[in-house]
Design goal:
The protein contains 10 helices and no strands. The protein is mainly alpha-helical. The longest helix is centred in the first third of the chain and has 17 residues, at 3-19.
């Protein structure tokens, strides 16, 4: 296989993760594909499947030992991507597989902050029930409540206020 063919194959694999093609990913992983393959942005297959809400693909990747803590070049984790998109089921799958609830990107933002910023009330409840700290601060001292208020996410701001954040 030439370098060009290898790059084309890799891009097709990332497309399968984005599309949620769990059966194809399972076959590729069974035949030796590394579960932590990264693209030019540092995104893993798990990051792409999580971000796009493909729970079956997420489960397949985790079954093959994809690391739920690997971050992309921007420091974003699969759980933060799922929280941003509002996908509670994917967040749950990742937490059950060992994703760090308090894991932060390089700027200190956590999945809880992402959920709070985008009015993802069910995810805020779930993450706090799993130990996420509602008082945590990012690198600039911003808390989940402050992030929600800044973004105009009134429901999560009220929710966090009721929780004493």
């Amino acid at each position: 296989m030439t370098d060009e063919e290898a790059l084309e194959f890799a891009e097709q694999v990332f497309d399968r993760a984005r599309a949620g093609d769990a059966p194809m990913l399972d076959r590729l992983l069974e035949n030796g594909l590394t579960p932590n393959l990264r693209n030019h942005k540092g995104d893993t297959l798990l990051m792409l499947a999580s971000y796009h809400g493909h729970q079956d693909a997420v489960r397949v990747l985790l079954k093959h030992k994809a690391d739920p803590e690997l971050r992309n070049d921007n420091g974003q984790s699969p759980i933060a991507g799922a929280a941003f998109k509002g996908d509670l089921e994917t967040v749950k799958i990742l937490v059950e597989a060992g994703a760090e609830v308090e894991g932060a990107s390089a700027d200190g933002r956590t999945a809880l902050m992402m959920a709070a910023m985008f009015n993802r009330t069910a995810i805020v409840d779930y993450l706090i029930s799993k130990g996420a700290n509602p008082h945590i601060q990012d690198a600039k001292g911003v808390t989940p409540l402050m992030a929600a208020q800044t973004m105009g996410a009134t429901e999560t701001a009220e929710q966090l206020t009721r929780l004493g954040a």
